[in-house]
Amino acid sequence: MHISDGVLSPAVITAGWAITVLLLLATLWWGKRDVDIAEEIPKISVMTGAFFVASLIHVSIGPTSVHLVLNGLLGVVLGTLAYPAIFIGLVLQALLFQHGGITSIGVNVINMGIPALIVYGVFKKGYSTGINPSILGTICGSMAVLISAIMLAIVLISTGEEFTEVAYAAAAANIPIMIIEGILTGSVVTFLLKVRPELLPINKEK
Amino acid sequence: MKEAICVKGLTYSYPDGTPALGDINITINEGEKIVIIGPNGAGKTTFFLHLNGTLKSQDNRILIKGKDINGMSNSERIRKVGIVFQDPDDQLFMPTIFDDVAFGPINMGMPEEEVKERVKKALSKVGLEGFEERVPHNLSYGQKKRAALAAVLSMEPEILILDEPTANLDPKSRADFIKVINNLNKEGITTMIAMHDVNALPDLADRVYVLNKGIIAEGSPMEIFSDWDLLKDNNLEAPDIFKFFKVLGCFGYNCEDLPLSLDEAVEVLARTIEKENGHVHLHIHEHTHAEVKDVMHSYNHHTTWHE
Amino acid sequence: MKEAICVKGLTYSYPDGTPALGDINITINEGEKIVIIGPNGAGKTTFFLHLNGTLKSQDNRILIKGKDINGMSNSERIRKVGIVFQDPDDQLFMPTIFDDVAFGPINMGMPEEEVKERVKKALSKVGLEGFEERVPHNLSYGQKKRAALAAVLSMEPEILILDEPTANLDPKSRADFIKVINNLNKEGITTMIAMHDVNALPDLADRVYVLNKGIIAEGSPMEIFSDWDLLKDNNLEAPDIFKFFKVLGCFGYNCEDLPLSLDEAVEVLARTIEKENGHVHLHIHEHTHAEVKDVMHSYNHHTTWHE
Amino acid sequence: MDYPEIDRYASIDSPIHNFDPRAKIITFMVMIFSFVFLDSITKALVGLGIASLIYIIAKLPKAFVIHRLKVVFLFLFPLLIIMPLTVDGQAIAQYHSITITLEGFQYSSLVIIRALSAVTLALIMLGTTRFDITIKALYMLKVPGTLIQMLMFTYRYIFVIMDEFQRMWKAMESKGFKLKANRYGLSVLGNMIGMLIIKSYDRAQRVYQSMISKGYTGNPGTIVNFKLQAKDYAIALPMILIALFMHTYHLVL
Questions:
Q1: Which residue has the higher pLDDT, A119 or C283?
Q2: What is the dihedral of CA B131, A199, D174, C171, to 10 degrees?
Q3: B199 and B249 in a common domain
Q4: Which residue from B216, C146, C239, D128 could staple onto B210, CB 3.0 to 4.6 Å apart?
Q5: For residue C23, what is the DSSP state?
Q6: Would you say A74 and D98 are in contact if contact means Cβ atoms under 8 Å apart?
Q7: Which of D239, D245, D9, D244 is nearest to D124 (CA)?
């Protein structure tokens, strides 16, 4: 789902970096409001490490295998700090494994990070209205991938109309991932709810 | 006696090419109590992972009860050999103890009733009756260790392998754990244990292998601990009690079999005294000091930092 | 003698309300060698985190060299007390060994040259000279343990606290590590160690505290190990050598101070024999068997599973 | 699951290896950004040629680069099939209603060539420097300390957590588990990821405590010594000029 180098137009790349830098500043500033950032740095780092490792897991579907995305789960667990976490994760994926290009990091972080932020809001809202957290987790996991896929398509098309069909194909390729991520995120949320509910954004306001 | 495990010329290198195991040959009979000792990084865990087929060996190197492990079905494989790893946190990943202990039986495709039966039985064997609904993550370390054991026992393996079962346990939990393992062995399960804890070793071993990439030595605990050079070359040590009886020898104490544990020491001492008509003399003769020095020196590790 | 650590009525509960430490009072003098023992989950780590101010106590409960730890500046605090935690992977968080060992000195605001000097010195103390550029991931467990120690030594703390320094080490690495700690203590550093490993304890302790939420007992290793009930109530054990000399007593052996380690045992034995004119008689008298049974029973833990 | 060994060959001796890390990052980033925006196949091929030349100078093993380029190529390969069929333009082959267009073929080739040259450059940049030094160089280049620390710690703990994950995985396998994309498989995997998150959270707490014990206040505590020398300018300048020239030569000539 990560866009490689050489695909996007200068305008899209520039816009991608600009938005990502702004969102990084905003989310870190937001994070600093209620927590000590010195304490958060090791926390986000080690957690990002865990998500990074988890995203290396292959799940085989038929003849192919897919990587986990986990941006929905990231959003649910880390809240607004999911954005810097995804930034770090994608930088390391690009640098260490060449998953996604270096020039396109800005855009890729937006594609993964904005859905994570949206899903965080959805989870909190959904939980306060009494939706079963497991179902909510499933919805959030799928929804994050869905939004990412749509954003991916939009980015591709806006870089050039030559990419229209490629964009549809890429978005369609994400449908099985959507299902897998949904089930998976649902079960992680169920697990956390039972074992460590304080890792979920529930009752924090009360 | 029937062979439980037979390994013929097993060799393994890590994916990056570093050799991990070289030409390992061992034969273990049913019901034996084996301990494997060796320095940190000797390849014990890698070896164990071969024994239940989690790591695949080349061509028929590993026979479990005479049958090639690579040719076994998933459920046969795990019914034959169960491995309890060192860190219980790596093995308990379910929301409840029940789920963790039921995991193996479920993977074996058992019907629900039998799974429940087995969970109950396994938990009672390790003294965790009624812990089904508890969250593994919230247990004490000693309880987690036992839960991890139960999660393997529920598969009712014929061969049980344990990696450092006593590490990080307080003395009581350690004594308890050793007792459980011995009970299982008495029930007929072949046990194979890797451990650093030489003072607990005599309780858990009929026979000892020294592993350091390859099999360096094999023998009774007595034979192994008597071989000073072997111990030194492999960063190993003998139990304190054993060493102390070696020292007693320098003071004129004469006993044929040296004890390895406190329990044995008491027996041996009583026997020796009785044999010598109720009296044993300890005295300092002209060579005593030199001999003591010699014994103590043999067992002392030189501090050479660079590994 | 000057006080290194003075804790007055420290009480602590976890954020969820579970009590962790209750009314702890201890005083440790400069240069002492202290070991803290206690069952798994006794609160040792939590206690240590208070001693260098990582966890904040209420109102002046902890004085380091007479000064309230909460009133100290960051760099004074870490210069006074250094803690080496159990898992080296938690403490080596930087990309290279140099960065890890330099981390403390840099935070103390030292100039670059001195930082480098200190890194070099700390690494040589643990026998890792030339490891500066190495990556923690590629070290062996024993090397990581030493690197974690170096990363604390580089702050040149006056008080050194170690949590289970010997856990999971093979016997040689363990012997090496004990030697390093003892050397540091000889150089004047006050050392305080939490450990389960009672057989290594006598080498590392002048004085022992038994901790189980609160301080249960305090005394010389000898006093602690002689108190059977205390040991039993707190899931603890005495060293095998010590127990064996208790047994020897039943056979008519008469010695005033019981040894706790092998080295001591040799000395004590030689001294006793010399004192008794070169001869010691071991014999079985009418009460021997009953007495032995008694001693052995006192030290045996009842297996009661439910903790 | 393999360790990220991007800097496995960082100890080789070559002019690129000896290039000051900061200058290296700036130079290569300029080149990468330049080459991904080249707008014709000819120019892109020249870019790929330059990248290959630098690769030869850097003396990195073939397998190191080829293996990673292959991954990128396979990822982009679908473009070579989809675009010739979907992009409008001059037909080079036709079968019933299916048309293969030259423009589609050219466009997808351009994308792939640009990608390959960018990745080659990135691999040289990263492969010739120890990764921790790359991060420290970024710090010297004024990337904010918060992000630098996150990069450092995350990088460090990827290795630790990978080991942890492998141990969990082995324990599951030795209880007969095989991951399949069904409900049971995914729910077990979900538990495992949940456990990994909890363990990492707890570890983060312990790491933080050990950092506090060493006087951590939120600043990246690290010492970096880089010295820019004349030779660094001598390498950087022409490379940057070439990168700029590729976009501006029509203005100059």
A1: A119
A2: -90
A3: no
A4: B216
A5: E
A6: no
A7: D9
Same domain (yes/no): C159, C246? no
Dist CA C147 CA B260 (whole Å): 35
Residues B72 and B138 in one domain: yes
Q: What whole-number percentage of chain A has pLDDT above 70?
A: 98
Tell me the CB-side half-sphere exposure of residue D155, using CA atoms within 13 A: 28
**CA–CA dist B89, C214 (Å, integer):** 27
Q: Are A96 and D217 in contact (CB under 8 A)?
A: no
Contacts of A164 in chain D (CB under 8 A): 86
Phi, psi of B81 (to 5 degrees): -125, 125
Pairing mode, strands B81-84 and C3-13: unpaired
Q: Is B278 on the interface with C (CB under 8 A)?
A: yes
Q: Which residues, 6+ apart, have CB-to-CB distance to B302 below 8 Å?
A: none
Do C120 and C260 fall within a single domain? no
- Where does a domain end: C198, C232, C266? C232
Nearest Cα residue in chain B from D171: B91
Q: Which residues contact A198 (CB under 8 A, 6 or more apart)?
A: none
Chain D neighbours, 3+ Cβ pairs < 8 A: A, B, C
CA max distance for chain D: 74
d(CA C44, CA C40) in angstroms, rounded, equals 9
E strands of C30-80, at which residues? 33-37, 62-64, 67-68
Nearest-5° angle of CA C289, CA C293, CA C298?
150
Give me the residue label for tokens 């202290």: C34
Residue C91, CB-side half-sphere exposure with 13 Å CA sphere = 28
Q: How many domains in chain C? A: 2
In terms of Cβ atoms closer than 10 Å to its own Cβ (0-12, 13-18, 19+), residue C102 is buried
pLDDT digits (tens, 9 = 90+) for C146-173: 999 999 999 999 999 999 998 888 878 8
Domain annotation covers residue B307 = no
Domain that holds residue C292: 240-299
The CATH number linked to C154 is 3.40.50.300
Verify that B228 and B266 share a domain, yes or no. no
User: Does residue B46 share a domain with residue B176?
Assistant: yes
Whole-angstrom distance, CA of residue B206 vs CA of residue B222: 10
- Tell me: do B227 and B269 sit in the same domain: no
Q: How far is CA D3 from the centre of its chain?
A: 14
D177 neighbors D161 (Cβ within 8 angstroms): no
Among B167, B168, B196, smallest CA distance to B40 is for: B196
Reading the block at residue C236, the tokens are 């603890």
Domain boundary among B232, B256, B286: B232
Give yes or no for B297 touching C (CB within 8 A): no
Q: How many residues does chain A have?
A: 206
Task: Give the C-alpha distances (Å, rounded to integers) separating B56 from B10, B50, B61, C200.
Answer: 10, 6, 10, 40
- Segment D70-118, tens digit of pLDDT: 989 988 988 888 898 888 888 888 888 888 899 899 999 999 999 999 9
Phi and psi angles of residue D189, each rounded to the nearest 5 degrees, phi first: -60, -35
β pairing state of C33-37 and C207-212: parallel
- A residues 20-79 lying closer than 8 A (beta carbon) to D: 24, 28, 36-39, 41-54, 56-57, 59-61, 70, 73, 77
Domains and CATH numbers, chain A: 10-199 (1.10.1760.20)
ipTM (interface predicted TM)? 0.90
